[in-house]
Each structure stands twice: as structure tokens, then as C-alpha cells.
Amino acid sequence: MTRVQKQTMHTDVLILGGGIAGLQSAVELSRMGLDSVVVERAPFPGGHVAHFACKATDRCQRCGACVLEDILQHVKSSSAVRVQVRTDVERIDRSAHGFSVSLFQRPLRIIPDICSECGKCEEVCPMPGALIRSPLDQALSIDESRCSFFRDRSCKACSEVCPEGAVDLHTGGEEIDLTARATIVAAGFKPFDASEKARFGHGIVPGVVTSLELDAVLRDGAGTCWPNGKEPRSIAFIQCVGSRDAAIGRNYCSRVCCANALRMAKLLKNRIRGLEVTLFYMDLQNFDRDYDKRIKEAEQEVALVRSIPAEIRKGQDRPVEIIYHGRNEERVTQAVDLVALSIGMSPPSIDFLQGLAVGSEGFVGEEGQGVHTNMDGVFVAGAARGPKSIEESLADAVRAAGEASSYLRKDIGGGSQ
Amino acid sequence: MKRRIPESVFLGREPLSKDHMNKVLVLGGDRLGREVTKRLEREGYDVILAEDSAECCEPREPGRAPVSMLSRVRGFVGGFTASFATPDGDRTERVGYVIAAQPARVSARHSRYGLTRTDRTPSLSDFEALLKTPERLPVRRQEWLHVAFLLGLEQESNPVVFSRVLWCIENLCSIRNTQPYVFTRHIKVAGAGLEERYRNCREKGALFFKFDGSGPVVVEEQDGPRLQFVEPMLGMEMELIPDLLIVDEDLEPPELTPLLEAVPTAILSEPFLQPDSPRFPGVETPKAGILAVGPARGVFDPDVVASDIESVVAALKKDRYWLDKAAPEVDPSKCTLCLTCIRLCPHGAITFRDAAEIDPDSCVRCGICAAECPMQAITFSSAEDVNIIEMIRDGVACMNTSPTIVAFLCSRSGAQAHEAWGHSLSPAFLTIVVRCAGTVDLSHILAAFRHGADAVLVGGCFRGNCASVYGNVLGEQRVEHARQYLTQAGIDASLVKFVSLAGNTPLRLLESLEELYAACRARG
After folding, report:
1. Are A13 and A103 in the same domain?
2. ipTM of this model?
3. pTM here?
4. A126 lies in a domain?
């Protein structure tokens, strides 16, 4: 891609990652009078949470996903926070005053101030998934990896149809030189790749989805992932897919999946009358303040099977068949309409920050060090530090922002002035 | 003429004074309270640390004499009056903030298992103490020492307790010829490093029995406790007579009575100070200036507790973003001191002298008081809120659609859902953003109809998700009230609707609006 323009920016804190931990860190820093630049790879901020559905039935289930909208409002209204979307970190070097950072911002392609979101481009685009909308405000953008213009320049349909001329296929990317005095790593988590556990049939058996896919579908309107387009009468959740699995070197609990599956089960039962929900699990982890009550409720509402299935395959009468070993090692087959794999959280890849220490599971930071890392002036917040719920990520962000601000003040106090 | 009410009749009355913003009262009892104190002192706050438990009184620097029981807190952020009962009589302190940072109450669960606390059946804490001097472990009757743990059988356990059990097992494994057993339901590994430690304990020979239904039957006999159970994996009946049977513990929030009385919504969240809601993710309670750290808000994980300490600093320094809007004002000539506003304010932001008086620093501008005041004595004067009724009148007047639907949308849910929808709504809808659904009152709904609207929708947060705790419930009740009123007036009540929404439920908003639209069209 052509590279044009060169911008220089200065900020107090560089925040790597525009998910809730990064955004909340930025908001907290702004309240302490510090400004920040949030660097986000995706075309819109919000990270994974931006795709989460509200789990409320007739009352709130305390998943916390709605808090993102609140945080974004603060971000928008704050002049101290700058969010750089579609931006990659190319390198970070130490400099006399902190960090010297090279960023590359891929062009926006659809200029938000001009676009009226009329959707004409979506109507003419031949490539599925090439035009994407932000789940937060429906702002349009182009996924270059799916757009045929960026493959072989064969199609310019969107640019031709756009009545406002908001589509810009030709501008090159922008190089940005940034200096920052401190860094917060808020790179979140990578969802476990379900195809690593081929026996669960994700991507092979229609009707097997990941918990993240189910969540996104519930947010955008239920129905689009139902096998054969029919509303399911039975759903099974498979817990610990890529968590607590020594066989693949993942010796940790992802902490949020029990809560998520049980909340999702409640929501689906509320939406679909007579829905049967089965949960395959090892141990139920606590969630909410009243965890004893929550788990006892779950035992009433959901069929609990303490076994992780041996195989999931295409079924005969129902779309999916689950084969598992029962209490006495007997082989049991259960047919269901839909299977949701509760995929675990993997550590993010941060290859641009040389020398940053990770713990035994690959998450940033070391045990007992909290939001501090082995590098002076580099802090870590949220799921980048280990699996965390939304609420815990928010708490972590406040902590990292506090530590970063203390560090910067010390910096000034001990300065040469 | 205004009635004069003797001051003694009302206990809640406190003058509004903000002269103690830099002074903080920390209620502690162990390390947590001291850490909060240290952290705040580093930020330059003047801290009083009150520790009410005798066992944790370490030597402290002069001027930090142990303060005893807090008996009452009154007032508002920046000017609380805290009363203490001390051995030398009562004393009061003026402080700007009160922070609950007491340790968890830990109680052994013997009674849940029908056991009594003895040397053979100690609590987890007893056993931890014993392990620190392993020579005090009982003399082995047989060659091996059998140690069994009862963990989370009757009531779910906490990862913090599980971590302590693992610590015991790790220590036991370093002593020769010991065999640990754990009887539990769910292994609580949702904490840093727990899964790995659990696996290591298993590899070193600890046996974990996980029960689905009924756990072991514990019989206390003369020669000690006897456990009878069906082994969950093999389905075989088994019996174990352990040398030691360790009983797990409950973790409960500390005793918070004086603060529960000071936070008006605590009656709904007892024994905690905070509602269990995503709107209170940090240490703040609905009452400005009263904060809950760690166990006081049901957080026991040491890593999250450490975040709470930083969250206290942030909360104290934070500019309250709503302060850019003026608080509602009370017209003293209209106020009859009925105290409705004081009783209903979820933030405990109102006091009174000759008339109700609103503390602008405690008020979050939810508008519940203004909507509830029977005398219409409370109004917002800031430009944005000037007059919902004017907005309805002007808005509906310039709409020439049929039907016309007015949607009042809470700024934290409905309005965000509208934004997330991203597209413009049909011109048949007039949206009015209100800070909280609790702001919308009967007069607003009736005004919409009077000015020509065909239907009204009030979109507030889901139950349990309101930043003003029950503003959404009040909003829904008023909609119900309006429906009754309209029915009496011969108007179809189904044209007024309350819908629970969240920022991430744009489709639900749209569906509700479309339903109302269709209902209007059907009526013609």
C-alpha cells in the first residue's frame, strides 16, 4: 500500500488496544488531567464487547456489556482522548522522554463525515463481508482483505454508486510518529481457535458455533445462525473449549465462560419458549455477588452434564449429535439443534514491544506484579493480563491509569528541571 | 404560611458544608484499611483510620490512636459528620469521604454440616494456623495421616477459600505420609494460577471427590468423624475416617450498619452498600462520598481488591461529569416540606431547612425528585432540560405525520440504543432524551397527547441496571399510572408503553417503536 503523509503527535500515555480496558484507561487518565492516544487495529473501537448482546431477560443479568456505550460517550466528549482506529503499531523504541512510536494508519476508505449511511454501496457490493458496519453506530467501512478492488482492482461498484462521493479507494496509508511518556498495554485477548479442537466440529458441522458467534448473532437479531433457518428447540453449551486443557498446554480457567453460558441460556430460554438447554462442563465457576444463588438457579434451569464430549458430529434427525461418556463410562449420544462452544481466552500477540515479559500462560505481566510489567513505564490492563470479566477489566483499567499517572508524576518530580 | 418543624423531629438534617473535602475516614480492620490509608496519604489526603477490631491494632504513629466503633454517619460528600462510640465516650469527626475497607467476616461452616468445632474437626483458619507449626499436627494413629476437607458442599465456595485449601494441601504434601482428600461440588479455579496449583496437588496425590447431588454423610462418633459417601466416579459406597476433618468457611461482607443507614438504597442491597449492578462497577455507592472497597462490596479476589484501592483514588479525584449541568432547584415558596423528595432520592442528595435543599455535589441530575414532587416545587433550570413540555409542544407541532409518536429515551439506554441503530428513524417518531426514565412524569405523558401525539413510549434501563437504582421502576410505575388515567378518559391505554432497553439493544427499541406505530395505524 502506498504510504503518504507523515504526522507527528505527542501524548502522555500511549494505549495499545481500543477495547473496554483501553478506552476506560483513557477516560480515567483524562479525569486525572492526562491525555492519551488509543491505538486500535479494527475499524471501530470497542473490541470484543462491541459485539456482545445484552443478556437481560425482563431484568438485567449484570453482564456489563452495555457499559461500553457509556464509556464511548465519555471518550467522544473528551478532548484528552484520541482514538486511532485502523492503526497498526510498527515499532516502539525507548527515547529520552519515554517512547518513540511508529504507527501506520490504514485509510478510512469511507469518510465518516461525508457518508450518509444510505447503504447503497452495500446493495451493489458483490463481495460478502467487504463492507462492514460498526456495531456501535453503524458507520460503514471497507475490509480490504475481502474487497476485490484491493485484490485485483476489478470492482469499484461502491465508489461509483455512492451519491456523496464518500468512498475513497485510492488514498494511501498514513505514517504517524508518536512520542509518549508511558504506555498501557490493553491488547485484550485472542479467542481460542475452535478448529484446534477438531472433534467439536466447528466449521465442519452446521449448527456448531462459538460462544462469540452466538453472542454477535443475538446482538444483531436472533435467527441468522440457526441451522436450516429454524429456531432451535434444544441448545447445548460445551464449556472449557481451550481452557483447563493440559493436553494442549492451556492450564488455566478462562473465568468468564460459565457466567456467559448460563446468562446466555437464560436469555435464550426467555426468547424461545420450551427451549431445552444442556451444559457440558467440568466445574461451575462463580459469577455475581450472589454466586451460590446463581449456581443453584442454574441447576434448576439447565440440564447439567459433568462431562466434556468426545465428539460432535452431524446428526440424523437433528442437525447435531453429541457423543460423550456418562458417569459409568457408558457412551451416550445426545441430539440437539445447536451447539455453542464456550471458547477460552488466549493471550494477545504483542510482537512490537521487544522484551516485554509474559507469564507462564503467555499473558502480559508477571504474577504478583499487578498492572506493572518488567518494563519501566509500561503497564498492562484488562484481559491482556489474564482472563477477565468486563467488570474486572474496568477495575483493572482504573488501576493501570492510576499507576501510570503516579509514574508520570514521579517522572516530573525526578526530572532535570 | 410555612409550617415550622422542630429540628429534633428529623434526624437526617445536616447543613451543607464543603469544608472537609481533603479529609477522609477509612474504616479498616486489617491490611486493606491500612493500604487504603497509605495510598490516600501519598495523595495528600488527611486520613483518619478507624479500626474497630482489637486484634489488628498494630503500633501506630502518634495521632493515630485506635478509634472505636463508628455509630453514625450523616451529611454529604465534603462534609460528613461521623460519630464514634469510644471508651472515653462519644466523639464526632467532620470528614469529606467515608470509605468502608474492612476485612471480610470469616465464619466456619460447621453448623451447615452438623459438626462441632473440635481438634479433630477444625476450621480452615484453625488448620492454617496449625500448619505453620507442623510439629503440632496430631500424632498419627496409623502410618499415614489422613486429612479430609469439606469444601463448598452445602453452599458454593469462593476461589479465595479454594486457594487457601490448596495452600494447606501444598504444605501437607511436603510432610511425609499424609493423604489429603477434598470433598466438594465445583472446583473453583477462576483465579490466577489456581488451575495449575490444583493439577499439581492432584499429581502429588491429593484426592478430589466432586459430588453432583448429595455429598458425604458426616457422622461424629467417639473415635472421630466418619464420612460415608458414594464415590462419584465409580458409584461405590465408601467410608473414610480421617484423622482431621477440615471445615471450610463462609466469606461475608463486614458489618456495615452505620453506613447502610447512610446510603438510602442500601435497604435494597443489604448486606452490601452497592447495588449489584453494572452501573456500579467500581467502589462508588449511589451516595456520593461513601465508598466500598473489597469485601464491603462483595469482592474478595486479592487482585480485584488491589484495583479497588486505586479506584478509591480515582473516585476521590474524579470530576463528576454531570456537574456541568446545574442541579434542580427548589422553589421555597412552593415546598411544603412533605419530604417526598428526601424519601425518594436514591442518592441521598437532599436535606432541608426552611425548604428542601439539594446538595449539587451529591445530585446526579436524574430528575426523580422533580418528577415526584407533588407541589412541582423542584425544577431544572439549565437550558438543556428547560422544559420537556416545551420540547414536546414544539416538536409535535412541526411534525405533520400521522400517526405521531413521542419516545422518551433514557440517556443511558434508550438514547444509546437509538444511536446504535445508526439510521434515522421514521419522521413519525419524536425522540426526547431524558437523563433517566425516572424523570418522565404524568404531566409529560399527558402533554404529549394534548399536543397531538398518538402514542407515547418510555424507554428506560432494564430492572437492576438503573444508575439511579430505581429510576426505571418509578418511570414504569408512572407509565402504568398514565394508562389508568387514559383509560378513565376513554383513551386506549395500549398507546402508552414502557420498554426496558440497553445501549446494545437497538433492535428491541426499533421493534417496540414499530409495534406502537402499527397499533396506531390499526386504530386509524
Report:
1. yes
2. 0.91
3. 0.92
4. no
